[in-house]
Known about the structure:
Shape: globular
Largest sheet: 2 strands, antiparallel
Strand content: 15-25%
Number of helices: 5
Low-confidence stretches: none
Structural class: alpha+beta
Radius of gyration: 14 Å
Strand order of the largest sheet: 1-2
Number of domains: 1
Distance between the termini: 10 Å
Amino acid sequence: MQLVVESDAVFGCELVLAPLDRDGYGRIGRKLAHVALWEREHGPVPHGMELDHLCRRRACVALHHLEVVTRGVNEQRKLWRVRARRTHCPRGHDMKLNAAVTSEGGRVCRACNQEAKGQKSC
């Protein structure tokens, strides 16, 4: 199945254009779109772990905006004060210099977005 996405040039998100589920996630069949794409690229999400949208945009399937974390970490990151304390992105870039804040309150790395430019998630 081909997933249609739209690139957000400001924040580097790849947003699903198909109808979203009631929680705002894109789906490929019965599977969440971001999980399906992650598994296609990286293999299954380890047991007891889940994918956190660093951008806080549920319709985003950009792999560089996803991080494998525990449920507890994902829950903590719902709080802005927890997200704001992060000093480095998962790839090690300094977030003081590279952070962009999405309208949903997510923090994405501009350097990672530049590295991912030209590489489509789907």
